[in-house]
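Before drawing any conclusions, I needed to go through one protein's amino acid sequence and its backbone structure tokens, quoted below without any editing.
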Amino acid sequence: MRLSPQASGGDPSAFLAYNPRLSSAPATMKQGIHPNYQPVIFLDTASNHAFLSRSAIDTKGRETMQWSNGKEYPVVKVEVSSESHSFYTGKQKIMDTAGRVEKFKRRYTRKKTA
């Protein structure tokens, strides 16, 4: 069961008294050791589909592209995304599973003795 200020009758001070770590100011992170978390455009080269997300990937020396909001963002090219992967598109290649099953059955089924 997770407690929340609403569970304590709507009084946030009762909730903070239960968990004193929440009442203190948030801890600041050390400067200079964390990667820069910034907006990046991921471009699927297979389907030419782009989406804007945030990433900590190194963007030094990467090309930039203008997004629909008019701002320039670095571009990370990917070969496969949900727009081009066969699992998500429903265009899966159906392999010859019947032939493989038959081969397995021939190889490993016991023959009846008379």
In short: Residues 1 and 7 are 10 Å apart (CA to CA).
